[in-house]
Amino acid sequence: MASDTTSSTDVVVIGGGPAGSTVSTMLAQRGVKVRLFEREKFPRFHIGESLIPETYWVFHRLNMLPKMKASPFVKKHSVQFVNAIGRQSAPFYFDENKPGECSQTWQVIRSEFDTMMLDNAREHGVEVHQPARVLEVIFEGDRAVGVKVQKDGGGTEEVRAKVVVDASGQSTMLQNRLKLRQWDPVLNKGAIWTYWRGAYRDTGRDEGATLVVQTPNKHGWWWYIPQHDDTISVGVVAPFDYLFKGRGPHEQTYQEEINACPAIQERLASGTRATGYYATKDYSYRSSQVAGDGWVLIGDAFGFLDPLYSSGVLLALKSGELAADAIADGLTAGDTSAAQLGRWGEMFGKGVDRMRRLVCEYYDGFSFGKFVKTHPHLKGKVTDLLIGDLFDDHVDVVWEPLESLYPPEKKAIPAWSAGAPPEAADKVNELFLPPDPLR
């Protein structure tokens, strides 16, 4: 069926989350005409609240730093780990490795942060449409040439573009259509979380620290993230089957996990629950390619990595930045081929692989404390990984010493490769609980 109206622009961006806001802002800064279509009306709830310091450099390019500094978001200077028997590591202070303001980051409430990012895109000249639903990406042969959009009040519009950027998040519009998804053979997790008011929080420099608490049975871990509205985000992550098969309602499972973890019990003793419960699957996946002729994938539309080290927003911002540079250069040269638009893919993939390995090592029993005690000269490199300095091979010096601590029976971590999706992997909509009205 033909569209009611037709228009054109240089670049269409599908999705207004951090990845879509980043790519569109940077393209607009270079004089590119961008139309962004976001299906939801902001502010809207989203998980993924803890940033890591390497986001600083993307914020700088986006002109977002003054806004972040003026925001009420809690400042984050470090991350700490608590092991299965309750022993707490010394904080990994980011500025001990890289002094300067670039080593301080934030704990954000995503409804507020994402709105700030999208407003920033508007201020830079991006034409933002929301709520606006992209029905499909239009192809001519193998080349993407635009999108079909559902218009307000009915009818459709065909928007022609030289490049289409899929930043649709876990909707993964193009990844699904082109059958590009590769499931991770190891990281098949789930999460249940809620928000607490009045629970314990550190003071001073440690007030905004992310705490990662290993469960006593070592099946998973807790996140503990302080936020500026007097709440703390507290969630448990564990294998999907362990959390969701053969157990009761999410509230019951969550409480059972609290009862089994003294380190979390102690911190929540003075608190009261402030919202309902949320649950989602955290199956890790990525696309087999980042771009094709006339199209690019960024953020969760390209891939999702286990949230253990809070890398999600960084990977969204970084992929948006790299894609924007490739697109702008390609438009200038008249080259919107897969090779040009995806020139950043190999480097980005190596960075994701570094973070993935650190995640897998943790689930396989890696102890930060033991490693640093055995190799104190490498604490800085481990901290580099934790702050998100993933796209430079200088951090690879940690892997051989890390392997030296392996027990004889340890096997290599399976590579991320294509395969059948994990059981129940497509049931995210059945598992995810709608945002609580109190939030």
TrEMBL record:
Superkingdom to which the source organism belongs: Bacteria
Single GO MF descriptor: FAD binding
Cited InterPro entries: FAD-bd, FAD/NAD-bd_sf, Flavin-dep_Halogenase_NPB
Residue ranges occupied by any FAD-binding domain in the UniProt entry: 9-317
PANTHER family for this protein: FAD-BINDING PROTEIN, SLR1998 PROTEIN
UniProt-recorded name of the protein: NAD(P)/FAD-dependent oxidoreductase
Native species: Limnoglobus roseus
Taxon lineage: Bacteria, Pseudomonadati, Planctomycetota, Planctomycetia, Gemmatales
